[in-house]
Amino acid sequence: MTSERLRAETEAIDWVIRLRDPDFRDWDGFTSWLEASPIHAGIYDEVAAADQDVGNILKSRSDEVPANDDSAAPSPVRRAVLGWSAAAAVAAVIGSYALMPGQAALEMVTVAAGEHRSVVLSDGSSIALNGGTRLYYDRDGRFARLDHGEALFAVVHNEENPFIVEAAGRQLVDAGTAFNVIASDGDLDVAVSEGEVVVEPQSEAIALTAGEAVHIAGGTAIRRPIVPGDVASWRQGRLVYADTPLRFVASDLARNLGVDIEVAANAADSRFTGTIQLGAEPQILLPVVGRLVGGEAQQADGVWTIMKD
């Protein structure tokens, strides 16, 4: 998903929330937003339709519950907009989504590319989210689902109730640790800085301890040693790589800089070792990155392309 679409989805959710208000009057602002991009109208229609579908499902379930049976009533859908500031058009949108009957509602947080956010759970565990990320989580439980993007989990130890993370169609289980997870286009990357994590405990049961990582693409899992202090280095404003495919470097940069980045065909097999310091504007940083990988970075139609000379 491009940063433009993710940002548009976040803004569309905001408009759906605002339009629910009977006193809504900002029709000029809504019209201007629709006309600002050719994708806005279609995305708004998708979000509004999904919102209506959820409402109909919950109403249907509510109709099936006896009026005096409070315990069986489904959790209401709620969305709250957090983190709005003048510095960013959208920082995050959080909401709750009802699951199957009997399950707790999950809250959702969506972070636009180029932004960071964090969530603290009731047991003291915390989740730090990088840009271009969408996460569902149970604030009062020990469960989270990383839909896409990158998140650092710092989990409070509880042997009897391990923390479970779902990402890229796989399950991760830990009992108290710190680990970084990336889910992108069906690929999964897990890096552990403290404690132990088991990936797919019911099948492959890949056990990772501090200083270990695994990348899973398709049916192939590749383990690698890492420096624990480099896990989630994006939080310290740097990206650290060791013989990493350039396409993963580009994805990381896109999440952190809030721009769309592609890798040209002639650089598709390139790998990079080194540290990239964040903080500079994309137009300054990306040409430097291009030179670091033995090529150049060019921008056209809002998209940066890293290519070999």
From TrEMBL:
Q: Which GO terms describe its molecular function?
A: sigma factor antagonist activity
Which domain of life, per UniProt?
Answer: Bacteria
Identify the InterPro entries for this entry. Answer: FecR (IPR006860), FecR_N (IPR032623), Ferrdict_sens_TM (IPR012373)
Q: Where is the FecR N-terminal domain?
A: 11-49
Domain FecR protein intervals: 109-197
Q: What is this protein called?
A: Anti-FecI sigma factor, FecR
